[in-house]
Design a protein that fits this description.
Layout: E1 4-10, H1 14-24, E2 30-33, H2 40-43, H3 74-87, E3 92-93, E4 97-104, E5 107-113, E6 119-129, E7 136-137, E8 150-151, E9 164-168, H4 172-183, E10 187-191, H5 206-214, E11 219-221, E12 225-229, E13 233-238, E14 241-246, E15 249-252, E16 256-257, H6 260-265, E17 270-271, E18 277-278, E19 292-294, H7 309-312, H8 315-326
Parallel strand pairs: 1-2, 1-6, 2-3, 6-19, 8-15, 9-10, 9-15, 10-11
Antiparallel strand pairs: 4-5, 5-6, 7-16, 12-13, 13-14, 17-18
Helix pairs in contact: 1-8, 4-5
């Protein structure tokens, strides 16, 4: 029979790691499972990405994040979270996909499969769900979206040199991708349904992309959507009518969402009147399922621009305060759950 952990965390992102550290600091036996690698979402960010925030706002576990840069890079963040995991000797089960959660408070069973489709099971008295949102892109639901030329994630520019590339979106990820592609020799067309670029684009990025558009170096279509993608073209629905342009690659950078189906499969109620936010106690982050907690961006439902590493990293302390009472029998002063503040993408 598998070991009965005190706490099992689903999701090994920064918030999940913070939750595990705070629970482990109580003397609890904690394990973490993730379908990908450690901080899987950060790993899949663009290779040369720079964070919008400062290093200290990404810190977890009271470990300093040292960086020579005012704004840390993706590579620096990955190294930092590896060091944190090593320092706390966290039990992270990487590359295990959670397929089902059964059981009740005090004895949950988390069923997983590994990379070779072997079935595994982990048991825990309490569960914390911190699965993020970056794995499920918002789809366009248009003909041609399933073509292999269409991608919902941007990594690096080299493969698109001298190619006609459409970037769909008007926020940070779209602006950054358009600039990177342009500067590495791609012929870039930016398509956005809004009247202008989003106001929350990083302050050092916004004037750059606006100037490239003004100079005609990046073609841009506002108040425009894509209605059809073929092997060689993209059809735009512009204010002046349909427009067909040549195209070899499409980056649909239109945002992402939590895995609502997975969250609901555990019995957690999603509030349709409140952006599909899970039902939870704001003082403890315990969901409507006793013993099952939510942390990180999943608490905000569809409002994925409210919770980031900067505020989600404090969810672990809120949950740990409740675990201290329920698993250790030691009442402690409860920290206040951080408010959800709207920030840039």
């Amino acid at each position: 029979m598998s070991t009965l952990h005190d706490v099992l965390v689903i999701g090994a992102g920064p918030t999940g790691l913070a939750c595990a550290i705070d629970a482990q600091n109580l003397g609890l036996n904690v394990a973490i499972v993730d379908k990908g690698c450690l901080t899987n979402s950060l790993f899949h960010y663009p290779a040369n990405m720079t964070f919008f925030t400062t290093p200290e706002l990404l810190e977890i576990g009271n470990m300093p994040f040292s960086s020579p840069n005012q704004k840390p890079t993706r590579s620096e963040a990955l190294e930092y979270y590896r060091k944190v995991s090593q320092h706390y000797n966290l039990d992270v089960r990487q590359y295990e996909l959670v397929t089902a959660v059964t059981g009740v408070d005090g004895d949950f069973a988390v069923h997983t499969t590994d990379r070779f489709n072997r079935k595994l099971q982990h048991r825990a008295r309490k569960l914390i769900v911190s699965t993020g949102y970056y794995d499920i892109p918002n789809k366009l639901d248009i003909p041609g979206e399933s073509l292999p030329k269409v991608q919902h994630y941007y990594n690096e520019p080299h493969p698109y040199f001298a190619q006609d590339v459409v970037v769909i979106g008007g926020k940070n990820s779209a602006a950054i991708a358009a600039l990177d592609l342009y500067r590495h020799g791609a012929r870039v067309t930016l398509v956005h349904r809004g009247a202008e670029l989003h106001r929350h684009i990083k302050y050092w990025i916004k004037p750059d992309i606006e100037n490239r558009i003004k100079n005609g170096e990046v073609a841009a279509h506002f108040r425009t959507t894509v209605s059809l993608i073929t092997e060689d073209t993209v059809t735009l629905e512009t204010p002046a009518g349909p427009k067909v342009i040549p195209n070899q690659f499409v980056f649909a950078l239109t945002g992402y969402q939590p895995d609502f189906a997975f969250i609901a499969s555990m019995g957690i109620i999603l509030d349709p009147a409140n952006a599909r936010c899970p039902i939870y106690n704001p003082d403890t982050l315990e969901s409507n399922i006793p013993g099952l907690y939510v942390a990180g961006v999943v608490v905000a439902g569809e409002r994925t621009n409210e919770v980031f590493i900067e505020n989600g990293r404090f969810h672990g302390a809120v949950i740990a305060a409740d675990l201290a009472t329920k698993l250790k029998g030691t009442p402690i002063t409860r920290p206040t759950a951080p408010e959800h503040t709207i920030a840039a993408e």
